[in-house]
Amino acid sequence: MMSEEELRALMLRALDGNAEAYQLLLQRASSLIRAYLRRRLTNAPDEIEDLLQETLLAIHTKRHTYRREEPLTPWLYAIARYKMIDCLRRRSHHEALNDPFDDDAEWSSVSDEEASASRKDLDVMLASLPANQRLSIQHTKLEGLSVAEAAAITGMSISAIKVGVHRGMKALAHMWKEQA
C-alpha cells in the first residue's frame, strides 16, 4: 500500500502532465477506493465495481479541483463517499416506492439544514485541532478506516493514530460542552 505522500506525489506529477504517474495513481486509488466501498457495501458486491468506475470518472473530471497543498486521500474518499451516497439514494428511492411506512418516518428525520449546520460546526471544531488529531479522527471516525490504514495513509504510527483519536475526541467533547 502506498503512503499518503507517495499518492500525493503521483497526483501532483499527474496534474503537471505526467501520464505514467496518472495511470499509476488511478491504479493505486482503485485499490483504496475498492476497499473503502467493500467495507461499506458488504451486501452489494455487484455495485462496488460500478461505483469504483463512477468514482474514477469523477476523480478524472474533478481533478482540477484538488488543492495541491492538501492531503490526497481525504479528497479521494470524499468523492467515493458522494458516489456511494448517490447510489444508495437511487437504491432507496426505488425501495421507497413500495414502503408503506415512509410517511411515518418523517417525525424522526433530521432536516438538511440541521445536518448541514451540524457538519459545519464539526468542520470548524476539527479545523481547530492539531493536524495529527484531526487526520486521525477524519480517517478512523469519519471515513471508517482502520487504525492501521490511517497510519499507512498519514505516515504516522498506529500508536500515534490511537493517541490522536483519543486526544482529539476529548478536545472535541470539551469544545462541544463549551458551545452548549
Automatic annotation (TrEMBL):
Keywords from the named record: DNA-binding, Sigma factor, Transcription, Transcription regulation
Key word DNA-binding present: yes
Domain RNA polymerase sigma-70 region, chain residue ranges per copy: 27-92
Family matches, as Pfam families: Sigma70_r2, Sigma70_r4_2
Lineage: superkingdom: Bacteria
SUPFAM superfamilies, per the entry: Sigma2 domain of RNA polymerase sigma factors, Sigma3 and sigma4 domains of RNA polymerase sigma factors
Residue ranges of every copy of the RNA polymerase sigma factor 70 region 4 type domain listed in the record: 121-172
Coiled coil: none
InterPro entries: RNA_pol_sigma-70-like (IPR039425), RNA_pol_sigma-70_dom (IPR014284), RNA_pol_sigma70_r2 (IPR007627), RNA_pol_sigma70_r4_t2 (IPR013249), RNA_pol_sigma_r2 (IPR013325), RNA_pol_sigma_r3/r4-like (IPR013324), WH-like_DNA-bd_sf (IPR036388)
Family: Belongs to the sigma-70 factor family. ECF subfamily.
NCBIfam families named in the record: PRK12536.1, PRK12539.1, sigma70-ECF
Protein name per its UniProtKB record: Sigma-70 family RNA polymerase sigma factor
Organism field: Methylophilus flavus
Lineage, uppermost ranks: Bacteria, Pseudomonadati, Pseudomonadota, Betaproteobacteria, Nitrosomonadales
